[in-house]
Amino acid sequence: MERLLVLQTILFACGLTAGLPSPKAFWPLDGGDQLTDTSGNGNHGVNGGGAVLVADADGTKAGAYEFTSVGDSYIEFPNNGAYDTKDSIHMLAYVYPQGTFGPIFNFKEDAWGVHMWSGDTSHFVRFTNRDTLAFTDALWEDNVLELNQWYFISASYNHNTGEAKLWILDSEIQSINIGQIELATNYEARMGVRTGDSRYLSARVSCMQVYDRELTPEEILEAESKCKIGTGLPPAVAFWPLDSDEELQDTSGNGNHGVNGGGAVLVADADGTKAGAYEFTSVGDSYIEFPNNGAYDTKDSIHMLAYVYPQGTFGPIFNFKEDAWGVHMWSGDTSHFVRFTNRDTLAFTDALWEDNVLELNQWYFISASYNHNTGEAKLWILDSEIQSINIGQIELATNYEARMGVRTGDSRYLSARVSCMQVYDRELTPEEILEAESKCKIGTGLPAPVAFWPLDSDEELQDTSGNGNHGFNGGGAVLVADANGTKAGAYEFTSVGDSYIEFPNNGAYDTRNSIHMLAYVYPQGTFGPIFNFKEDDWGVHMWSGDTSHFVRFTHRDTLAFTDALWEENVLELNQWYFISASYNHNTGEAKLWILDSEIQSINIGQIELATNYEARMGVRTGDSRYLSARVSCMQVYDRELTPEEILEAESKCKIGTESVNDWPLGQC
């Protein structure tokens, strides 16, 4: 036992676990296994008569049992000792609360063994003493669940630490120390009804599991993966693709098809889309109105989402009440804004407004949500929550038509493209937001490069971006056709004065505001220019060639320095690395990257970049630090890329970098 504890300590110290243990009880509670205990321990459930197997229960792949808040609506689980865990326990289940608090898993059908309850918006557990059924302090979290949604909830007790915990999925939401006790788990268990207690459960339940120790967050996720619940995206209450396929149709099936005010233009080949988008051109008739037959009058909670390509003027993305202030989400410049207003009076709540979070002429999946149970209002960009405030519990002014582009009586006409407008009647999770985004036909991935030199034996010094800035060799840069690890070679810079490539700049890669420079580099020992704007001075410059990665962003008019980013000892000689450096004008953030990992960042403020010059690789005139390295696949973009986009940029290279599979076993 002592050796096992030592092993567990080592595993946890290294961020590893031994994986999910075998359950002591597992009742799928679905249309396949029904009440069978699939753990192999033989404690098959018995229906009290009124627990109903709902084969097509919303959000499940195989159904669930529904408890209807009546006296015989329960399941009893016999206990032959297999799930009498005594010391530690973890109880887990998928629950779809429908309004009435009652037993999810209650040891001892007519008394208070260990018991986990839910069914309304709360999550509750109490761990009781084995011999006396004496209470310990309960754990009870109110208003953490919404009705008619699936949640994977659980409760754990760890005898070694004395810690009792409540969980929603892999997030610990409450814990207290109740000391070291023996648990009252030596009884049958009930779901739905406790004899002598009129609080009958109103909920659906599936995938009930019991383990004899507290699980880690990773193990909880593994336990959840054994369930047949499809907890994903609920049906949209309104969905307007706003593209050349569906135009203004409401594809939710609820019939609220949009009406064009006359000046909203369907741009069939809108940049970055697969099927076009509507463009709003900042004039008075450039709008779409969406009638509301009540289907998207969500009243309590809401999530509004759309793809937006801001072009400069702040205006309505989705504004309930065409001539006043129902709930309204606005954008179109670099900001993202929402205000949730009161239903009867249109009285304002505090607005959420984030400036300088978008760049013009780029696609963003933006959204705003309000959760009535918690009172939380939130702004999102894709699956990242960027602002939240609590505005209390209100009824929403969603009982009107909605407008996009123009609010009557307001001269702030939207300048933007919009596609894929969706409305849901509850706040979505980050995972569900991603699922909603996947229904859109926007190709938000990698933008077109403003310069791309493959620097290989196929393309040599050609600029394949189409912008015509083909490189020329100073004489000593050598095309190594079979450069180690490449599929098509690379250019080698041999640390002499003519071993360079110069890239003319006709303005196509004069990015000025934001930039991302990327290249495959095989350092061979001498630090020098990978990409240095201004061949004899200090424009923006990214250097490497030894074991370091360096960038400095300089001012356009004066070439004045900003703080450099320099990471030493992050590369090894004679290996290929996809390195890059980025500057985001909106945020002021400068960053160094190796592949998709950000390794350093600083804020240098909002500057205009010295990118209005030719660029050099290998040698900067007047500087004796000549590069010793191989380089391939030099790319420049006019904005900071996301980690996912960096990987997409890397996939365009012909470097065959092999995986590292000889990790040192003596280290974590």
Topology:
Layout: H1 2-13, E1 25-27, E2 46-47, E3 52-54, E4 64-68, E5 75-77, E6 89-100, E7 102-107, E8 115-118, E9 123-126, E10 139-141, E11 151-158, E12 163-168, E13 171-177, E14 189-191, E15 202-211, H2 217-224, E16 238-240, E17 259-260, E18 265-267, E19 277-281, E20 288-290, E21 302-313, E22 315-320, E23 328-331, E24 336-339, E25 352-354, E26 364-371, E27 376-381, E28 384-390, E29 402-404, E30 415-424, H3 430-437, E31 451-453, E32 472-473, E33 478-480, E34 490-494, E35 501-503, E36 515-526, E37 528-533, E38 541-544, E39 549-552, E40 565-567, E41 577-584, E42 589-594, E43 597-603, E44 615-617, E45 628-637, H4 643-650
Antiparallel strand pairs: 1-15, 2-5, 3-4, 4-15, 5-14, 6-11, 6-15, 7-8, 7-14, 8-9, 9-10, 11-12, 12-13, 16-30, 17-20, 18-19, 19-30, 20-29, 21-26, 21-30, 22-23, 22-29, 23-24, 24-25, 26-27, 27-28, 31-45, 32-35, 33-34, 34-45, 35-44, 36-41, 36-45, 37-38, 37-44, 38-39, 39-40, 41-42, 42-43
Supply the CATH class of the largest domain: Mainly Beta
The number of helical segments is 4
Share of β-strand residues: 35-45%
CATH topology term of the largest domain: Jelly Rolls
Low-confidence stretches: 1-17, 657-668
Shape: globular
Q: Give a quick account of the main beta sheet: strands, pairing sense, barrel closure.
A: 8 strands, antiparallel
Calculate Rg over CA atoms.
30 Å
Q: Give the termini separation.
A: 23 Å
Tell me which CATH architecture of the largest domain applies here.
Sandwich
Total number of distinct structural domains: 3
Structural class: mainly beta
Query: How many individual β-strands?
Result: 45
